[in-house]
Amino acid sequence: VRVGIGRPGYGGEQRDAVDYVLGRFYADEEKVVEEAIARVSQAIRTIILHGLNRAMNEFNREMPEGESNVY
Questions:
Q1: What are the pLDDT digits (tens) for 15-67?
Q2: Residue with the larger pLDDT of the pair 17 and 70
Q3: Spatial distance between the Cα atoms of 33 and 68, rounded to a whole number of angstroms
Q4: Which end of the chain is more exposed for a tag (fewer CB within 10 A), N or C?
Q5: What's the pLDDT at 23?
Q6: Who contacts 44 (Cβ-Cβ below 8 Å, separation ≥6)?
Q7: How far is 55 from 10, CA to CA, in rounded Å?
Q8: CA 33 to the chain's CA centroid
Q9: Angle between helices 27-50 and 52-59 (to 10 degrees)
Q10: Domain ranges (residues) in the chain
């Protein structure tokens, strides 16, 4: 399972990639991380109960416009 972290440059701020990866989350990023963890948990459950192919089809699809693609 892979969880993306995005890219440095939050709000136009320039951050070193190492600091970005290893640094603390901003307050508004914490909600996104919590949602990603919940989605990863769902993906793992789907892998265990229904197999990898079903999980890949369900969780690796493109998201509709305006819907979050965080997982």
A1: 777 777 787 888 888 888 888 899 999 999 999 999 999 999 998 877 666 66
A2: 17
A3: 12
A4: N
A5: 79
A6: 1
A7: 31
A8: 7
A9: 150
A10: 10-59
CA pair distance 11, 53, nearest whole angstrom: 37
Within 10 angstroms of residue 43's Cβ, the number of other Cβ atoms is: 19
Which alpha helices (H) appear in 12-63, and where do they start and end? Answer: 17-22, 27-50, 52-59
Task: Retrieve residue 4's tokens.
Answer: 């993306």
Q: Are 71 and 59 in contact (CB under 8 A)?
A: yes
Token pair 């989350």 is found at: 25
pLDDT at site 71: 44
Write the burial class of residue 10 (CB in 10 Å: 0-12 exposed, 13-18 middle, 19+ buried): middle
- Angstrom distance (rounded) from CA 28 to CA 25: 8
First to last CA, the chain: 9
